[in-house]
Design brief:
The chain is α+β, with helices and mostly antiparallel strands and 179 residues long. The chain has 5 helices and 8 strands. The N and C termini lie far apart (38 Å).
């Protein structure tokens, strides 16, 4: 478990053999080191903040976005509800990559662009940090004030979710400036 703290980009964290509790402890250590306790956690001099969700600690919400995937479930009334409670190994074993990409450690390996996305019926500008070599993306959203960012999520690009093809379409239709 402590060996995960010394993993570097593009190594994967060793989490498959851990129990759920051990896995959470290991991932939380990396999350705390790279994000929660990182006073210099910013992208291009803008501070990165977690989204606030009513009634939930914002860092817990962000940890969920970086380690779990969204699934649609149907409640007892037949209404579809999105839930982010399915552990995602691909995201989680790359958790330590977030800081690497935010810091743009190897700029030649990534593409940074902003794109006007359609989210829940609204146009929303999002900034993507795309690593085509490793099929990995970090998604930021500028705050309304344009002085800071929200860290929306990160994930490993898979074919089922549009993957590299979807990212290429978004890059082709990118905004002229990074927001």
């Amino acid at each position: 478990m402590p060996t995960n703290l010394i993993k570097k980009y593009n190594q994967l964290l060793e989490i498959t053999h851990l129990t759920e509790a051990e896995r959470t402890v290991s991932l939380k250590r990396i999350f705390n080191r790279d994000i929660t306790e990182n006073i210099g956690f910013n992208f291009r001099s803008k501070i990165i903040r977690p989204f606030k969700v009513d009634g939930l600690p914002s860092m817990d919400t962000l940890f969920g976005h970086l380690t779990c995937e969204t699934a649609e479930q149907t409640n007892e009334n037949g209404k579809k509800i999105k839930s982010r409670n399915i552990f995602d190994y691909k995201r989680s074993e790359r958790l330590h990559w977030v800081k690497h990409h935010i810091d743009e450690t190897i700029p030649a390996k990534i593409k940074v662009f902003s794109f006007l996305d359609r989210i829940n019926g609204k146009d929303v500008v999002r900034t993507y940090i795309l690593d085509e070599t490793e099929n990995y993306v970090v998604i930021l959203e500028p705050q309304r004030s344009k002085t800071d960012y929200y860290l929306v999520t990160t994930y490993y690009l898979t074919k089922e979710k549009g993957g590299v093809v979807q990212m290429k379409k978004e890059f082709k239709n990118k905004l002229p400036d990074i927001q």
